[in-house]
Every structure is written in structure tokens, then in C-alpha cells.
Amino acid sequence: MNSQLLNVWSSPLFWVALFAFAAVLLSGVWFTDVLSTRLEAYPLSLWLLQNLGVPFARVLAMAAFLLIGYPVIFGLATAPASLASVFSQVSGRSGRLVDIMFFVTILASVIPVLSRFHALSLPAAGIAGSALLMSWVQESMAGQPGIHYWPGLVGTAGIIGSAILAHALGIWGAEWLEADPEMPPQAATAVSVLQSLLILVPVLIYALFLGGQFAS
Fold first, then answer.
1. Any idea what DSSP says for residue 144?
2. What b/e string do you get for 11-38 counting C-beta neighbours within 10 Å, with b at 16 or more?
């Protein structure tokens, strides 16, 4: 697994996907921050923005990462099927991908156990998106056997452990920012972006598990 991660990180396509993830994420953060200041007098609109708009922006960033990083982030040197062919087989798949990832994010945020660990919602969406995307890839390949979605105990432990680490970083960052009220707003953005980058690790672990079934 470590060698696979190193191969992914050494690929230029991975860094392009990472840049796209960060760009979409920062754009969403900036837009919601600007809009939040204009909606302070409208509590309902502000609540909708914070509880639906912000998660949706994060889901778009994750979707961009998955689609731009394919097939490299799945540990594949070449694509077993092009995304053009995958999405052209059934209309509306791109929208369905985002919709399901967004639904998983919202669902994870309201489940009592998971809602206490807010950083787990985006990895859950990324994992769901990876599974859905690769199921479509498998469907478009004649003779490709069905794929398995359970990564085993070791893989699951790695996924959960890295997601909890990202969550812990968010808590530490929040405490660090609260300890110094004069901290510039950019510091909060930096902590949020760093946490979001760590959130990609469990998604990568699961993506490599899925891609390994095609490589074999």
C-alpha cells in the first residue's frame, strides 16, 4: 500500500487533481464567506448556506479530484475505460455522482455517531463516489468480473484511522485559533484546507483497493 501511495503521489496527474481539489475548495470557502456576511440578517438563508451550501462546495471539490485524478488515484497506469465512454453510456451519470456524494455527506452529518466527527462526512462521500465511479467502469468493460467493495479489516482500519487523524487536526486547529483571537482569517482557511487535504488519504486508500481489482 505504501509503495502504491508513493506511485500515486509521484504522478503529475495526481498533483493536477490535487490542485483542482484545492482550487474548487478555496473558491467555495471564499464564496460562502462572502455570502455569509450578506446573509447575517437572514437566519434561515444563513443556515441553509452553512449546512447545505458549504457541504455541496466540498463535494464538488471531491468530485473534481476523483474525475481529474482517474485513473492514477486508483493505482492504474492506464484507464481500463475512458470517462467519456463511462458517462456516455447512461445519461445523467455526472449529476448522479454528485447527488449521491452530497446525499452521503448530509446523511453522515445527521447520523448520531458520525455527526460527532464532522471530518468523516467528506471521506464518506469520496469513498461512495469512488465506488460508484468504478462500478460504472466495470460495467463498461466486457469480461471484467464484478468488483468487491469491502476493503478488509486492515484497509478499513487504515481508512478510519486516517479519517480520525484529519478530524483530530480540525479540533486542534480550532483550539489553536481560539487561543489567539488576533489570528488572521487566513489562518482558519489554512487549517481547513490542510484538514481537507488529509481527508483525501482515506479516499486514496479505498480508491487503490478498488483499482487493484482491475490491475489484477
1. P
2. eeebeebbebbbebbbebbeebeeeeee
Q: What is the pLDDT of residues 100-144, one digit of tens each?
A: 999 999 888 777 666 566 667 888 999 999 999 999 999 888 667
To the nearest 10 degrees (0 to 180), the angle between helices 185-215 and 121-139 is: 30
pLDDT digits (tens, 9 = 90+) for 144-161: 778 899 998 988 998 888
Q: For residues 203 and 162, is the Cβ–Cβ distance under 8 A?
A: no
97 vs 125: CA distance, rounded Å: 10
Query: Which amino acid is present at 46?
Result: L
The cell numbers describing 57, all together, are 462546495
Instruction: Report yes or no: 120 and 163 within 8 Å, Cβ to Cβ.
Output: yes
Do 166 and 200 form a contact (C-beta atoms < 8 A)?
no
Which of these, 128, 20, 124, lies nearest to 69 by C-alpha position?
A: 20
Q: At what angle do helices 121-139 and 93-110 cross, to 10 degrees?
A: 150
Using a CB cutoff of 8 Å and minimum separation of 24, what contacts does 142-146 make? Answer: 144/80, 144/214
